[in-house]
Amino acid sequence: MRRYLARRLLLAVPTILGVTVVVFAAVALVPGDPVAALLGPGAPAEARQQLAERLGLGEPLPERYARWLWHAVQGDLGVSISAQRPVVELLLPALGQTLALAGASFLLVLTGGTLLGALGAARPDGGPRRLSRALSTLAVSAPQYSVALLLIAVFAVTLRWFPAGGTQDLFTQGGTGDRLHHLVLPAVAAALVPLGLTARVFGAALEDVLRSDLADGLRARGLRRPAVLRHCVHNASPALLTIGGLQLAYLLEGVVFVETLFAWPGVGRLLYDALSARDLPLIQAGVLLVAVAFVGVNIVVDTVHALVDPRLRGAL
Q1: DSSP string covering 202-241, please?
Q2: What is the pLDDT of residue 37?
Q3: Looking at the predicted structure, is the pLDDT value of residue 153 above 60?
């Protein structure tokens, strides 16, 4: 198992290096003048030259990339131009907020996707299957930003059950309970699409197991439906691990709309503000952090999958 994990980590190195090249080149080659965007078109020539030298805009692109990568490996991601603070000081608190939102959403995805998929697979010829298919299709098809706006309009503005945004009440600051209260709507909005996908994939995998010789053998032994379903769920768990890991990675990188609409101070909203301000060091560091998190989640999922299914350990 250690050899398998070592191979996965070694394969992740060129992947992350490739991501750094794409991230740096994409940000550096964006049309427009970043100096004019930051200082304004009427800025003095001396100030423009100083900022251009500070950003290294006059150097060749490979040289700028090599210097940026060397500093990034050492943990130095630069200084934010708009906030005038080290990028790490901005990213770490935002990462904590994104992890909290992604974690709450992921619990909803796993719980709802498993129950919804099992509901459809257990009754393949009845109404529960049609209900499961309809709900999962609706979850996948609904645009995330539209769902977020609908949740705000209904549950925050009309019913006043939940706050419309932020992480805590400014006046009471009620601690953990208040924070969880603010977390409900953004977590639901972020979880809908991956919940529907998880339900469809896990339901299809469970149906295949329920039609297999394993299920027939369990029934022949006299096991009742709940016991047969429990054993079949265990055999379908690799599919749940795979789709669940992909959806967790999606939640880490795909909650920009949710964080922006609900004023949730995570990495997505931080990147949105950085793009508006053309804050190049913050954009590069934020996208790199998300990419590394995506690769890390996939390594963890593959490792857990190999623990569940030993046949995969010899796949590499």
Answers
A1: HHHHHHHHHTSHHHHHHHHTT--HHHHHHHHHHHHHHHHH
A2: 62
A3: yes
